[in-house]
Amino acid sequence: MSKHISLVWFRLDLRLEDQPALSAAVRRGGEVIPVFIDSPQEEGRWAAGGAALYWLHQALADLEALLEKKNSRLIIRKGPALESLGQLIAETGADAVFWNRRYEPELVKRDSLIKQALKNKGLHVETFNSALLFEPWEVKTGSGTPFKVFTAFWNKCLALPSPAEPLAVPGKIPSPSKWPASLKLKDLGLEPRIDWAAGFRESWDMTCGGAAKCLKDFSGEPLPRYLNDRDRPELRGTSRLSPYLHFGQVSVRRAWHTIRKEGRSSSGYLRQLGWRDFAHHLLFHFPETPDKPLREAYADFPWKNDNALIKAWQTGKTGYPIVDAGMRELWHTGWMHNRVRMVAASFLVKHLLVPWQRGAEWFWDTLVDADLANNTLGWQWVAGCGADAAPYFRVFNPVLQGEKFDPEGAYVRRWIPELSGLGAKWIHRPWEAPAEILFSAGIQLGKDYPKPVVDHEFARRRTLAAYDTFKKQKPAEA
Which residues touch 116 (CB under 8 Å, ≥6 apart)? Predict the structure, then answer.
């Protein structure tokens, strides 16, 4: 009788602990060949951006090292995925393929075709959930439809059986008698030719060990501190787990059970994990939403596309310190504090009337945790055109947001050093500071730091007028 040979197709699940596809292949018995296939062309226009590709390279290097410690290795190929899998099956005699599911629309379609094609060839194929607490199709309204309101969605989730405990790292990963050929990781060209990632390296440990430490450090903090500090960008009050969760370097089930065992309640951080599931729920059931608003009427909203203003926003030169600090943090570290993400996104959409899709594209290319589901949910929430969306009349005042959540100006001073000489009274509104205050701080507005690109009150009135006019034109839909 021939021995089993299983391919384990790694994707955004770059770890050994709680790795259902890997564990299933090992339990099956026989040889196990871990595989990674680079096929960005199959992800369409939402293939990973520059920041995410840099993290992906580091995560794959770490996975290679983890597999080597288990006397295994990672076979790297370039796509298309079905063709690459077919070649590996022919080269190795593999009779089974295991992988963990992804939920991006283009990949759902691709993976379904691959699964059927492999089964038609007589292979054993199994897929698993490794990325979510609950599968998108498991959570339904009473009438069997998808949820569009988070609280109802989350209440339904909490009524379901709790997510399973994480799987242990396999004790042994049986190697094949002969390994197939593999590309070198550097052959994928994931790292930039010009090294712009120094800030990433100083900000992150992009390994599974870094993920474990991040979770351990966060779970050791008392719940009240998280609830009190999570909106303060100058503090390390959030988990910073988002890139590790995106690349699967820590499992969401590990995060869930670790936080629960530390006594955290579902009203705190676990609820944030629920928002992550909700984002994937929406993306799965409404696959057009990365490009089109969930509330279809908003496709006709009278947006503006002022490229000079968009550039000012992208480069942190809007003249509003809390917005600019966030955009500079993003450029340097590949990450931005969640409260500041909301303020910066709202500024682009509500103050500048720029289409939310333009902002989503910029975040997609610059965030290390760029996740299609979360990115889409966040931007549609801000624009008021998605599920659980912020009401159209909510226009964040960037000055008041800065004064409330960065009261001493520490966050702004860190990312906008040219304003570091200003005291807390003026740092979020430098254009209102008396001339002698600006002079003593060494600041010449318009030269050292820009004047506001738009007046807040003017922008607020303009936005409300645009939304009001739009809603009157489309009362039944909007």
Answer: none
Please indicate, yes or no, whether residues 125 and 136 belong to a single structural domain of this protein.
no
| pLDDT score of 294 | 95
In a domain, 249, yes or no: yes
- Picking from 269, 273, 203, 275, the residue whose alpha carbon sits closest to that of residue 237 is 269
Please state, rounded to an integer, the average pLDDT across all residues of the chain: 94
Q: In this predicted model, what pLDDT tens digit does every residue of 208-229 receive, in sequence order? A: 999 999 999 888 766 657 777 8
- Residues 256-315: tens digit of each pLDDT: 999 888 765 445 789 999 999 999 999 999 999 999 999 988 888 889 989 999 999 999
The CA distance from 145 to 206, in Å, is 38
Element (H, E) at 112: helix 105-120
φ and ψ of 99, to 5 deg:
-155, 165
> How many whole angstroms separate alpha carbon 277 and alpha carbon 129?
12
Do 277 and 320 reside in the same domain of the chain? no
Query: Within a domain: residue 216?
Result: yes
Read off the tokens for 284: 């799965």
Q: Are residues 314 and 452 in the same domain?
A: yes
Between CA 402 and CA 203 the distance in angstroms is: 23
Length of the chain: 478
The candidate with the shortest Cα–Cα distance to 157, out of 287, 270, 284, is 270
Tokens of 307: 């490229």
Structure confidence at residue 201 (pLDDT)? 96
The Cβ of residue 237 has, within 10 Å, a number of other Cβ atoms equal to 20
Is residue 23 within 8 Å of 167, Cβ to Cβ? Answer: yes
To the nearest 10°, report the CA torsion of 54, 59, 60, 66.
160
Show the domain range for 366. Answer: 296-472
Q: Which CATH number covers residue 265?
A: 1.25.40.80
CA-based nearest residue to 252, from 47, 40, 20 = 20
Packing angle of the helix pair 356-366, 338-346 (nearest 10 deg):
140
Residues 95 and 4: beta-carbon distance below 8 Å: yes
The per-residue DSSP string of 9-33 comes to EESS---STT-HHHHHHHHH-SEEE
Residues 69 and 160 in one domain: no
Residue 12 lies in a domain: yes
CB atoms within 10 A of CB 255: 27
Quick check: 394 pLDDT over 90? no
75-78 and 31-38: which strand pairing? parallel
Phi and psi at 169, nearest 5°, equal -65, 130
CATH code at position 123: 3.40.50.620
Residue 196, in any domain of the structure:
no
- Which tokens is 168 given? 């242990």
